[in-house]
UniProtKB/TrEMBL annotation:
Cofactor note: Binds 1 zinc ion per subunit.
NCBIfam families: arg_catab_astE, PRK05324.1
Domain AstE/AspA barrel-sandwich hybrid: 249-321
InterPro entries: AspA/AstE_fam (IPR050178), AstE_AspA_cat (IPR055438), Aste_AspA_hybrid_dom (IPR007036), SuccinylGlu_desuccinylase (IPR016681)
Any one GO molecular function term: succinylglutamate desuccinylase activity
Pathway annotation from the record: Amino-acid degradation; L-arginine degradation via AST pathway; L-glutamate and succinate from L-arginine: step 5/5
Cofactor: Zn(2+)
Designated name of the protein: Succinylglutamate desuccinylase
Gene3D superfamilies hit by this protein: Zn peptidases
Job description of the protein: Transforms N(2)-succinylglutamate into succinate and glutamate.
Active site residues per record: E211
Length: 331
């Protein structure tokens, strides 16, 4: 196999299902799922996923460039690695999803949806992740990096979203996020149906959703904007020193979620509202029948505003700054 992305987009089963080179063995598990195992023993196991939304193509292209180097034997590999292209059918059509948003379905939530390609795929991805991590004992590093791009522009073009986690985040993981060029980190305080929440909750993985710029079709991405993330991924896989990071990411935590409850939902933000736009206390953010969403803190920042989601799904998150941490950064 020379090009994992092109093979996945073809929709065909590869003629060769496994192989090896001087550094590693590889094994094709299923459409868009491939495992790499270094020849030397390792206590590190890393999942890197991309393409859960089929119109978010830049991370897929970056990841494929790194995989091509591994498949050709041009780069060494230190951890066991599982690579997942989450929604190949949507990637082929440059659509966010075909029927339902797969990144709301994990943790068994796919059972609550009608039978559709995304529900079946979410189940398959859960199985793949379980198989991968159950194969390792006493892992020192258990990470899941999920690569995305955002629908809207942002005051922080590159940021990470971390799931609810009752444990301390590993220092090495947080350092890696900074080296990947992230300008902000957002910490969830409630469970959710995302792939990263699933891996964190069920496998104690250090997990993060990386938002790397704005969604563009294949061929329309300026991949130079993602150089830091690509370099950090390459260093992680090969065991090389991380690139020098700039300022540590600013930290935010979720203060409230805006949920679309019915077709009457109205989001009081324009289509041009950027992620991390600030709103003062008392601002009416959205309404849905009798339900009203207001800014509750002195200042809150919006993330992922989207009035076009299905009823029952998140139409936006409101954030507050982690002032103690951010003030320490400026000292």
């Amino acid at each position: 196999m020379q090009d994992f992305l092109q093979q996945t987009l073809s929709g065909e089963t590869p003629q060769q299902l496994s192989g090896e080179n001087a550094h590693l063995r590889w094994s094709w598990w299923d459409e868009g799922i491939i495992e790499f195992t270094p020849h030397q023993a390792t206590q590190q196991a890393i999942v890197v996923s991309a393409g859960l939304h089929g119109n978010e193509t830049a991370p897929v292209e970056i990841l494929n460039q790194l995989l091509t180097q591994l498949l050709r034997g041009e780069k060494a590999l230190v951890p066991r690695l599982l690579v997942i292209l989450g929604n190949p059918a949507a990637l082929r059509q440059n659509k966010r999803y075909l029927r339902c948003d797969i990144n709301r379905m994990f943790g068994g939530r796919w059972q609550q949806y009608e039978d559709c390609p995304e529900a079946r795929r979410a189940w398959r991805l859960e199985q793949a992740m379980e198989t991968f991590w159950q194969a390792g004992d006493n892992l020192e590093v258990c990470w899941h990096i999920d690569l995305h791009t955002a629908i809207r522009g942002s005051y922080h073009p590159r940021f990470g979203v971390l799931p609810l986690n009752p444990r301390e985040w590993p220092d090495a993981f947080m350092q890696w996020l900074g080296a990947a060029g992230l300008e902000a980190l957002v910490f969830h305080r409630a469970p959710g149906g995302t792939f990263t929440h699933y891996s964190c909750e069920h496998f104690n993985a250090a997990s993060c959703t990386l938002e790397l710029g704005k969604a563009q079709p294949f061929g329309a991405n300026d991949l130079s904007q993602f150089a830091a993330a690509k370099q950090a991924l390459a260093a992680l896989l090969s065991g090389e020193p991380l690139p020098q990071s700039g300022e540590a990411p600013r930290r935010y935590r979720v203060s409230q979620q805006i949920t679309r409850l019915s077709p009457a939902f109205k989001l009081h933000m324009s289509a041009e509202t950027l992620n991390f736009t600030a709103f003062p206390q008392g601002t009416l953010l959205a309404e849905d029948g009798e339900k009203r969403y207001f800014v509750q803190q002195a200042r809150e920042y919006v993330l992922f505003p989207n009035p076009n989601v299905a009823s029952g799904l998140r139409a936006g998150l409101m954030l507050v700054e982690d002032n103690a941490h951010n003030e320490a950064l400026s000292c």
